[in-house]
């Protein structure tokens, strides 16, 4: 009944949520216009301070957090040294028992036979007592002695065997204590004094709101799962290229977090579905592939207290599979559950783009069940706000061109080492010129340029230093539409001068322009 009521409320909110979102965005735009008076000056894109991760330095932790960390370390130390961190393997014990079972059975049968013989003697003795009326002492004394002897013979083998098994178990446990247990390359034994151990343990504590027992159980389950799932060998496995477009690692955000893109629409393709999710075996391979991708992303992290130890997830919901693709949804949900249960606090930001209106209702249904920490990491962007939203967290040169950025796949011209793009705000109805100096003849220049939303006039020309030379038109004036791809041009000058890029904002709104350029190296 409760579920039905919540679903009904969510359906009602489908119509209300978009209005609320649009109103909030309108207020943001008004506020931004008031604050930006001197934005026409070029500037380097600065790092965003819109969200901040919790500190991993002990000195920054609250008292109850320090206490919880200390308690978890004590429990973990005890579990590792006591060899109780993992479930005991019953298979090995089962293989040891059969070798002694025959002897044990023979001993038990022999003892049983002796007990039966003594019981018969007792019966005979009682009959003789009745007929001959002999004194009880004469009959009972030998009988009691025989019984005690038989009991000793029955109990001794069992006691000896139990003691031997116990001693053997203790010896095996002492011999099997693994002080080098680690996770993601970080040693877990607290007494080793590695600072990264605290960082990892804090992830489990934060995932369980600093409840020590819950965090410890989560850690134990994660370690057990990694053992059973054979994570240590997963990086060496090959899964083919069919799924590479469904999720991939690419670039970093403004704070240095590696970015993972999840493209749900790919799984709606019938051909890819048949190759990757059509059977149970393929769905299991899909899970292993997704876990492998997560492990590859973690290899780029730094578990020092001041290091980057989490990822940014970009989830593209465009053309995501509908309700009819139950197998796809089940596989995706299982993968998400695995990542949530075994990779706690590994997401710095979870950004959903190309979000349909109905998804806001779905999110509002889930929100009451989410912690404040989880809610603070969620970001949603409608199709018209994708680039604008991503730019809050990711530099333009790290955003793929399909999402309004200037990052190209397998780009051999620009690299991370070439620096950040420059941002310029063009006011409504104004013109912005960008000059690229070319002091030496015979030099090849390459540049990228993009205007968010475009709807501007754009020209390119080369102006020689020599006033007697003619200006060369590289690109005639062109009206750039909203769906235009980023401009990339290459030009080789024959004499000293400068390249001038001119952008005229003929719209009634301000525009953001980003550009970068470099000298292109000659290929031999």
TrEMBL record:
Transmembrane segments: none annotated. Residues 86-124, 140-159 have a biased composition (Basic and acidic residues). Residues 236-411 form the CRAL-TRIO domain. One of its GO terms (cellular component) is membrane. Keywords: Cell cycle, Cell division, Cytoplasm, Lipid-binding, Membrane, Transport. This is Patellin-4. Residues 27-61, 78-168 are annotated as: Disordered. Residues 125-139 have a biased composition (Acidic residues). InterPro entries: CRAL-TRIO_dom, CRAL-TRIO_dom_sf, CRAL/TRIO_N_dom, CRAL/TRIO_N_dom_sf, GOLD_dom, PATL, PATL1-6_C_GOLD. Belongs to the patellin family. It holds the Pfam family CRAL_TRIO. It is found in: Cytoplasm; Membrane. PANTHER family: PATELLIN-1, PATELLIN-4. Residues 387-519 form the GOLD domain. GO terms for biological process: cell division. One of its GO terms (molecular function) is lipid binding.
């Amino acid at each position: 009944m409760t579920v039905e009521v919540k679903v009904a409320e969510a359906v009602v909110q489908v119509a209300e949520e978009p209005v609320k979102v649009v109103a909030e965005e309108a207020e943001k735009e008004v506020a931004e216009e008031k604050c930006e008076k001197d934005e026409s000056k070029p500037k380097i894109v600065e790092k965003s301070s819109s969200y901040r991760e919790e500190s991993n330095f002990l000195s920054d932790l609250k008292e109850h957090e320090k206490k919880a960390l200390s308690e978890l370390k004590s429990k973990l130390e005890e579990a590792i040294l006591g060899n109780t961190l993992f479930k005991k393997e019953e298979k090995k014990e089962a293989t040891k028992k059969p070798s002694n079972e025959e002897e044990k059975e023979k001993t038990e049968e022999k003892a049983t036979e002796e007990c039966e013989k003594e019981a018969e003697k007792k019966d005979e003795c009682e009959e003789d007592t009745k007929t001959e009326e002999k004194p009880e002492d004469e009959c009972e004394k030998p009988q009691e002695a025989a019984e005690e002897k038989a009991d000793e013979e029955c109990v001794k083998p069992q006691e000896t065997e139990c003691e031997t098994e116990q001693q053997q178990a203790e010896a095996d446990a002492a011999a099997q204590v693994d002080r080098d247990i680690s996770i993601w390359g970080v040693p877990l034994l607290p007494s080793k004094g590695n600072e990264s151990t605290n960082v990892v343990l804090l992830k489990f504590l934060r995932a369980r709101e600093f409840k020590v027992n819950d965090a410890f159980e989560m850690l134990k389950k994660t370690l057990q799962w990694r053992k059973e799932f054979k994570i240590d060998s997963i990086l060496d496995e090959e899964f083919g290229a069919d799924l590479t477009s469904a999720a991939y690692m690419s670039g970093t955000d403004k704070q240095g977090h590696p970015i993972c893109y999840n493209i749900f629409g790919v799984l709606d393709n019938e051909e890819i579905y048949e190759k990757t999710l059509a059977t149970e075996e393929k769905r299991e391979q899909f899970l292993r592939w997704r876990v492998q991708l997560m492990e590859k992303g973690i290899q780029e992290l730094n578990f020092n207290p001041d290091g980057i130890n989490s990822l940014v997830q970009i989830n593209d919901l465009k053309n995501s599979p509908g309700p009819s693709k139950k197998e796809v949804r089940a596989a995706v949900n299982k993968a998400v559950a695995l990542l949530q249960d075994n990779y706690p606090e590994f997401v710095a930001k979870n950004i959903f783009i190309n979000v349909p209106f109905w998804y806001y209702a779905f999110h509002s249904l889930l929100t009451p069940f989410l912690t404040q920490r989880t809610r603070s990491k969620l970001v949603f962007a409608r199709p018209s706000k994708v680039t604008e939203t991503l730019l809050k967290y990711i530099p333009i040169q790290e955003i793929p061109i399909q999402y309004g950025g200037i990052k190209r796949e397998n780009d051999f011209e620009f690299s991370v080492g070439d620096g950040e793009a420059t941002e310029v705000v063009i006011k409504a109805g104004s013109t912005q010129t960008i000059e690229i100096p070319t002091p030496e003849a015979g030099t090849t220049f390459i540049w990228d340029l993009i205007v968010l939303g475009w709807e501007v006039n754009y020209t390119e020309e080369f102006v020689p230093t020599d006033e007697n030379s003619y200006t060369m038109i590289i690109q005639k004036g062109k009206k750039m539409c909203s769906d235009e791809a980023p401009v990339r041009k290459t030009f080789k000058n024959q004499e000293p001068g400068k390249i001038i890029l001119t952008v005229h904002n003929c719209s009634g709104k301000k525009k953001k322009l980003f550009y970068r350029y470099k000298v292109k190296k000659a290929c031999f």
